[in-house]
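Throughout our pipeline, every protein is held as a single compact record rather than as scattered files. Such a record has a labelled line for the sequence and another for the backbone structure tokens. This encoding replaces a full spatial description with a residue-level series of whole-number codes. For reference, a complete record is included directly beneath this paragraph.
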Amino acid sequence: QAHLVESGGGLVQPGGSLKLSCTARPTIFAIYYLGWYRQAPGKQRELVARVGTDGVTDYADAVKGRFTIFRDYSANSVDLQMTNLRPEDTAVYYCHAHTSFNDQYWGQGTQVTVSS
């Protein structure tokens, strides 16, 4: 059973929008950071955005001003609203949880393709 359940993703034209959602199951304790990473073909996995328990957000420079992350602490979930998508945003997006015990969990990944 997956600890992180993702939804969203798909194919969108340049300039379009998509929303990714992720829910953490109660099997993960003391989540500190909840967020999203991505990995494009031939590239390393990189942080896209994350939210800490203190509400502080971190964004990759490449997505600032276009992506917005929202964490619902009561639902143990996180959404990533992506706007003005570009072909270079094409990647597999992974939900990620980092706990206060320094454990890390990954979702199964969801494909985002930006193409005309």
In short: The first strand starts at residue 4 and ends at 8.
